Amino acid sequence: MPDLTLPLETFRRNARVNAVLLAALTPADYEFSDGRGGWTVAKHLTHMAGFRADWLSNISPAHVEPLFVLVDGKYVWRWEGRAPAELREAFTVSDEAALQAVHNAIQNNQPFADPWNEGTYQSNPVHFLMHTVVHDSHHRGQIMSVLRLGGHSPEQMDALENHWAIWRE
User: Fold this and answer.
1) Domain count, the chain
2) Which domain holds residue 119?
3) Residue 79: Cβ within 10 Å count
4) Pairing mode of beta strands 68-71, 74-77
5) CB within 8 A of 103, min separation 6: which ones?
6) 42-95 pLDDT per residue, tens
7) How far apart are CA 148 and CA 145, in angstroms?
8) Beta-carbon contacts of residue 87 (< 8 Å; ≥ 6 apart)
9) Count of CB atoms situated within 10 Å of the CB of 152
10) How many Cα atoms within 13 Å fall on the side-chain side of residue 127?
């Protein structure tokens, strides 16, 4: 079995960066957008957290139970419609589900399901974790731009960017 220490640590550090960002946001920050029809900070964060649940529901359905609830006979993402400030739990629970799904796939030497027949993460299940890190980074960059456009001072932006220290440990 290959050494997964580095990709697993990368995924965990990504989770810490998300936690730093979530802790730094004020309630007013969630409503900022680019003013040109782009997503709000809340929408970016909700999309980031929901990304894990959406992918897992297709590639490893056995690992999504903690992410969904049954409402009127239909499974719904647990954080659908909830306040953005509650997303920290969504990230924590869905990150754990992602790690368990990858661990299970590796332990059983079983690729993820490929419902669209497009080779989704077939070469290595860890690619799902790396895709998540890249996806989160993309949206965090957009969030930082939206906050800057929303009027955050250079000092406030510097404080938000303190998460870079996590990557230099």
Assistant:
1) 1
2) 5-167
3) 21
4) antiparallel
5) none
6) 999 999 999 999 999 999 999 999 999 888 988 889 998 888 888 999 999 999
7) 5
8) 22, 45, 46, 49, 79
9) 18
10) 10
